[in-house]
Specification:
Isopropylmalate Dehydrogenase; alpha/beta; homodimer
Chain lengths: 341, 341
């Protein structure tokens, strides 16, 4: 098993990517192929001791920047770590490709260089959403700002398979994000999607409101990419602000500092529960190969975990399973669309 | 000054509404008119000592339920506390009306019984969003699931006036919720709205992403009602889960409990920062009278504060100001719409 890895992606360049790759070797069985600038990567690699036979470096001369226009970057930078990595995935030289680069470019590159699974209209970012109750799956976390009901049905199926295969949640409870529990709530997109989800063979449990998302009572949270992106980032933002507000209160006076010191161990468990770096990566489901988007600000730990989840995705044949099942749920979507007409 | 108050609205019935009204007398100058079942309200009122000349009870025989269909409830329950209260507002018998009842019914009732300000296409819920940096204004927090750019421009103007008049934020920074900072991000609705906001005389500072909303660096957060509702409720949900997770960690062992005890005072300051009951109410801006929606699960403290903010709204002539300024910003919207065509 070979996991491809974009050594140049993310805010913390080759420093954190290389450390993440080296650390990942300890928890995965497969080998890693890092795409990026040979000299920069080797400088970082030389800092660590590891089994050199398990990390291969593929030299690339270009980098897709965070501000690059997606399609232009993919077409204009054929020797970038991202494009070369995606091509290797299509050729089967690697079994998955993990990148913390420009999300739009990774999506465009996946479509242009790897392609969609036949029957899937739009690939979606499928993120693990940490809750107090373990973890849910949020899909789409931002790949498609504008969606049709058909897209959301596909997201629901793919998210459900991810929850089952990768997180081990059997018969996962699928819920639709909405602003009320009644099926008549929301925009026409959400009203129609609710109707269609009821007709599927998914374990659809109805709408989930913003207030209930973090409780983790449902396994798969389905949303359009605009809403999903806001849910994901807002959750991070609120958690960050609360943790930093808490720190301030602890540091405010001596008695607070002593209290904080006594709580230190318990609070570190707590921090772990709300730490996205524990999961680190979101697959672009619907692409005809396993592409995993790592968080732009990933550190080594987030990269290590993104690589770990990529391995679980490979081992569980996630893409192959979606490919095989797509015909059955494509039919469900067709039928519902017919009803609509 | 007379503040009308729906004594039957919200999850905690006359018990919390009446206590909230009595408590409010201590911090407001005006009098309160409570609409609801005379016997139930007087039973609760008899529990407290207060200046009886400052609370008037108007007996009504019906109640709009949380599950009632909005328009049907308003038309079918003419003697409900909500409908009678809204009619009193239109007649000028009261200067504001505060209710924790069914949001959809309150919106429908406001439109049917009070009416819109001429030039405003859609009233919006304008909520105070508590941040670590004070408070922002979020508009629309859920009145309009589906919006056009024109609606969002109106929300921006009205939210800006609320931030100025009621929160005292001069030249408030207005931001558009979005999934990226670039003006080409988001759905067509958001791309078009961004363009139009740039052309207004508002202090428009660009897009704000989910991650940055809780930081409180902007004063007015503009969103369609679907997204706004999810932002508001998700923020509450994340805060609730984190606070309860924190409590669990504190109670986990003896050392945690001691640490928690030492931190108790500091943490209560902290809790206050993230407590929606401090603000308690959201005006339905664009209605031709001051209607304030209180949180459905409001307790007495939330009601007291909702009444307090209603008083600030009356004193600052918020509705009158919107009415006067609407012609100038209606023109801005017209012009931008013309550009579009």
């Amino acid at each position: 098993m070979k996991i491809g890895f974009d050594g140049m992606g993310g805010d913390h360049g080759p420093k954190e990517t290389v450390k993440g790759a080296v650390d990942a070797l300890e928890i995965i069985k497969g080998d890693i192929v890092i795409f990026g600038d040979d000299a920069a990567l080797r400088t970082e690699l030389s800092k660590y001791k590891f089994d050199a036979s398990r990390i291969e470096v593929v030299h690339t001369t270009e980098v897709v920047g965070n501000d690059d226009k997606p399609v232009k970057a993919i077409k204009g930078k054929p020797d970038s770590s991202m494009v070369v990595g995606l091509k290797a995935l299509r050729k089967g030289e690697i079994d998955a490709f993990v990148s913390a680069g420009n999300t739009g470019a990774l999506l465009a590159g996946s479509l242009l260089k790897v392609g969609r699974i036949k029957g899937i209209s739009r690939p979606a970012l499928c993120t693990i959403y940490p809750t107090m109750n373990g973890a849910s799956v949020l899909v789409d976390a931002g790949a498609n700002a504008e969606c049709k009901p058909r897209n959301l049905i596909e997201f629901a199926y793919m998210g459900s398979m991810y929850a089952d295969k990768v997180l081990g949640l059997k018969n996962p409870k699928v819920a639709l994000v909405n602003i009320g529990s009644e099926e008549t709530k929301g925009t026409p997109l959400y009203i129609e999607t609710h109707k269609m989800l009821k007709e599927t063979d998914l374990n659809f449990v109805g709408n989930v409101e913003g207030r209930d998302i973090p409780a983790g009572n449902v396994d798969v949270i389905v949303a359009d990419g605009f809403t999903g992106n806001i849910i994901l980032k807002l959750t991070e933002g609120v958690a960050m602000q609360i943790v930093s507000g808490l720190k301030k209160q602890i540091m405010k006076n001596t008695i607070g500092k002593i209290g904080g010191l006594l709580l230190k161990r318990n609070l570190s468990d707590f921090k772990k529960m709300i730490d996205y770096t524990e999961y680190g990566g979101a697959p672009l489901l619907g692409v005809n190969g396993l592409v995993v988007k790592a968080h732009g600000s990933s550190n080594a730990k987030a990269f290590k975990n993104a690589i770990k989840y990529a391995q679980i995705g490979i081992e569980s044949s996630l893409v192959e399973e979606i490919r095989q099942k797509v015909s059955s749920f494509a039919n469900a979507v067709e039928e519902s669309s017919d009803d609509e007409a």
